[in-house]
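User: For my dataset I need records formatted as: sequence, then structure tokens, nothing else. Please produce one.
Assistant:
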Amino acid sequence: MRILLAEDDPLLGDGLQSGLRQLGFQVDWVRSGDAAERELCAGVHAAAVLDLGLPRKDGLAVLAAARAHGVHVPVLVLTARDAIPDRIRGLDAGADDYVLKPVDLHELAARLRALVRRSHGQPQEVLRAQDVELDPAARTVRKAGHLLQLPTREFDLLHALMLNAGRVLTREQLEQHLYSWGREVESNAVEVHIHHLRRKLGGALIHTVRGVGYTLLREAAAC
């Protein structure tokens, strides 16, 4: 899951980026409001963590501008501004969640997973399709009740497909989900990961839509 982090404090930003990466997130970190707005409007992230006191453009202005441009990326405001009017302004500007500093890293991760889950219309934490279950918090996958060991990229790819079950995702969209800045992407990386997932999960789960991309079927196709 690829996350945008907008935080100008170098120590806090570095700690959040490192901690979230250890919990399985791909994190792109920006340190200014104008950079945060640019990346939010690109629409390539599953969610964003936004500080309000950013240089060059205040976080509330960033959020309002992104929403005015039709950006639907879930945004969690993380700030030291604890007054009730500040919270109201943040939520009214389009924030999906509002958390005060300091925040427990595991709570932050749980809130981000919840935001992404709700943005995809998924009511439960554990995702299910056919006989496969994926738990984003525990980062486990089971097929017919049996635990599978998936490498990070395969898990993240399956997670993206299960979040979007029934929807066709292009290779570019899947690459955006899998790789943060500075991570080299091989030309056939998605195809290789899909091939490995099919070997482990069977061929009925993930379908190729020729010339478009891939889709995951929540229910097995009728014979």
